[in-house]
Amino acid sequence: MSPTFHSLSIRNYRIYFAGSMVSNIGTWLQQTALAWLVLELTGSGAALGATIALYLLPTLLFSPIAGAVADRVPKRSLLLWMQVAMSVPAGFLGVFAILGHVEPWHVYVLTFLLGIGKAFEAPARQSFVSEMVDAERLTNAVALNSASFNSGRLIGPGLAGLLIAALGSGVVATGWVILLNAISFWFVVGALLLMDRSALAPAPISAPGKRSVLDGARYVASRPDLLLLFVTVFFLGAFGMNFQITSALMATDVFGKGAGEFGVLGSILAIGSLVGALLAARRPKPRLRFIIGAALVFSVAQVMSGLMPTYWSYAAVLPLIGISVLTTATTANAVIQLTTVPEMRGRVVSLYLMVFVGSTPLGAPVIGWIGEHVGPREALVVSGLIAGLGIAIAALLYARRHDLDGPELSPLVRRMLGRQRFDQQVLARAD
Question: Where does this chain mainly localize (predicted)?
């Protein structure tokens, strides 16, 4: 089997990958339909930014607690329940829209509830990968998860745009698309139930305690390399991961396009994202220098996209944005998975997601306001410049004292691991 896909040789991961693929397509169907629904109801870029912020805000609020929960309960069981928890609000929102009774406050409340389920599901999902595959395949499996997510992004937006247009381009049309997402969560439930539980390698369950969240924060604070990654993905999330807002406003306000063309932009962006994830799957030894370089390429591409004169020239830049974003995020995720002790993995991943995904609610309303009141082009240029400047400053400060080619672990981390375990499990992977 090709090195790019060798994790698929493991039965449990192969089943999980298939279920997740369907769910990821559903996620992107809803993301596109939700953006169109908000614009249909309000016509406001700021309202769209607020909706995205409400979806992502629970990640910012609850990620530390969610990470502690993921380290204290079986991850497979937690994932099962969270699929159900996310299916319910998506189903209600779809039905309300189909019946023509949906109002903006329904969207806000149900999106926030869906975000709560996502906040508790994500740390368990990310750290569950290491229970399905061995250390040799872990980087590959993390990257293939990103490839699955972005395959959904490749298929979902374009399909959503076509479905919405075919069903009349109105509120009712978006409801049917959102309902498909509610159904898609059950494919993951099926995959988890079909797994061979004896072939899993569950991580040690951490002992309950009031300090469990604080211990995770102390662990991250003792790792300069993780702090650099967190700063990098903060700027990427807050000022770069606002594609739903910027692409919607560019498609409608700047280029005068409709739902179909808006959905196509999401699929074009996903082409680059998928390529970035597959390239990351071929890299067995991720490096900090590579992550920083990819993040800076993204900031340049973001600025370029805001300067493009036509719909198609704007679309042509999107694959580069997708490649750089996914290369950065996937490789950073792999570094965290490979260099974090198993009993801390859920908490560290949750803090990573809190910074990466949770930072978007901080930037989304700002970018939405700039896009609506100043202009979509200006929103893209400003966000790209802020992201690039923040990442460059963080990397330069880190490089003054540490090596950008590999992680540096403090004496505290050595004590937590034990000297022999540290030498065998962490340095071997980092080198």
Answer: membrane
**83: Cα separation from own chain's centroid:** 17
Alpha-carbon distance values, 417 to 131, 262, 332, 414 (Å): 19, 49, 21, 5
The mean pLDDT of 29-39, rounded to a whole number, is 88
Locate 214 and state its tokens: 């604080």
> Taking the CA atoms of the chain, what radius of gyration do you get in angstroms?
21
Q: What are phi and psi of 2, to 5 degrees?
A: -55, 140
Which helix (H) or strand (E) segment is 43 a member of?
none
Tell me what pLDDT residue 282 has.
66
Inter-CA distances, 431 with 21, 68, 155, 339, Å? 32, 29, 37, 11
Using the predicted structure, report yes or no on whether residue 373 has a pLDDT greater than 80: yes
One DSSP character per residue, 102-155 reads --HHHHHHHHHHHHHHHHHHHHHHHHHHHHHS-HHHHHHHHHHHHHHHHHHHHH
User: And the tokens for 191?
Assistant: 């995959």
pLDDT in tens, 199-212: 887 776 665 554 56
* Residue 309: exposure state from Cβ atoms within 10 A (0-12, 13-18, ≥19): exposed
Which domain range does residue 108 map to? 3-201+208-430
Q: What is the CATH number for 416? A: 1.20.1250.20
Please state the domain count of the chain: 1
Token couple for 30: 């809803």
Residue-wise over 3-41: b if at least 16 C-beta within 10 A, else e? ebebbbebebbebbbbbbbbbbbbbbbbbbbbbbbbbbb
The owner of tokens 């390239």 is: 279
Q: In this structure, what token pair is assigned to residue 173?
A: 């049309």
